[in-house]
Design goal:
Length: 89
């Protein structure tokens, strides 16, 4: 749980692939600040991860150094610290 979760450390120029599995009964609109990412043929900065076992994979190039929040856009989930940070220089 954010801010106690480990940061997701990557290096500038990395090709980053994130796979998510939602085992909860809630839908999670997951948002990555500072980057656009590829989901299939679409370019997005937020992707919906449906409930009950939905799987989503997205990819991006680490080309914007900094500390970037990755979080659920449902405010009550963010308030419960459903977030991580992608960090690189």
């Amino acid at each position: 749980m954010y801010p106690d979760a480990d940061t997701l450390e990557i290096s500038e120029g990395d090709h980053v692939r994130v796979r998510m599995v939602n085992r909860s009964p809630a839908i999670h609109p997951m948002d990555l600040h500072g980057h656009f990412f590829q989901v299939g043929d679409a370019v997005k900065d937020t992707v919906l991860v449906a409930s009950h076992g939905d799987r989503v994979t997205f990819e991006f190039r680490a080309d914007n150094p900094g500390d970037w929040l990755f979080h659920c856009h449902n405010v009550y989930h963010l308030e419960r610290r459903m977030a991580r940070v992608f960090e690189y220089d």
